[in-house]
Amino acid sequence: MKAKWCDLFVLGLVQCSNQFCLTSMLAAMSSHLNACSRVGQLKVERFEEVDEQIRYLLKLVQKFDDLKLSSMEFAYLKLISFTANDLPGASPDQRIHALHMQAMQELYDHILSVGGVTGFEDNTSENDSSSAAAVAASMYGTLDRYSQLLMLLPTLRWFKQSILVELFFSGLIGNLSIETVMPFILAMDVMNVFDNSDGSESTALPGAQSLANILCKNEE
């Protein structure tokens, strides 16, 4: 999870982009950072680095929108990405490799079934040639979509974890490392993240107090 959380986060972010207007939010981030850069609150080099990541996210959202992925296809891409042994220093694991291969095969089978091709049997009817042509066309369509979906995964290497943490998590975790906080994020009750249980006002960003409470309880 420490090595692959960023891949899963980006895929989940893109999948839910329409639900919270991600493109508008990213455009607002870019505009705000640009303004900070112009008045000297942010170094130009830093702005360019962060803005590049924002533009990559916008480009990736467009790529996914063009392909109109189903929730099942998103699920398989997440599993394939999570089990891929594609990072420097990653050690091979036969069980994870087997799971990776199974996910690849099941994604292909899913696309094939959605395309309506479940097999082709020889027969002597006058429709043989047209049936064969239809199956061939459907198989080509399956391979084409399968290829296009897998070609999305290398784009996940566009992103730098440190910048994504700064953009989306800094208000929640402060100076803590994302690797330290991740187990608590996975275990926390997300419905109560923005609750202020004592009813008092706080200057902390929404969610920061909830996460701090979880960390403190764990240390007791």
UniProtKB/TrEMBL annotation:
Residue ranges annotated as transmembrane are: none
| An example Gene Ontology biological process | regulation of DNA-templated transcription
Check the record and name the InterPro entries matching this protein: NHR-like_dom_sf (IPR035500), NR0B1/2 (IPR033544), Nucl_hrmn_rcpt_lig-bd (IPR000536)
Keywords per UniProt: Cytoplasm, Receptor, Signal, Transcription, Transcription regulation
Domain of life of the organism in this record?
Eukaryota
Query: Domain named NR LBD: which ranges?
Result: 1-189
Q: Among the entry's GO cellular component annotations, what is one? A: nucleus
Chief subcellular location equals cytoplasm
State the compartments where it is located: Cytoplasm; Nucleus
Which residues does UniProt assign to the signal peptide?
1-16
Cited PANTHER family: NR LBD DOMAIN-CONTAINING PROTEIN (PTHR24081:SF8), NUCLEAR RECEPTOR SUBFAMILY 0 GROUP B (PTHR24081)
Q: What is this protein called?
A: NR LBD domain-containing protein
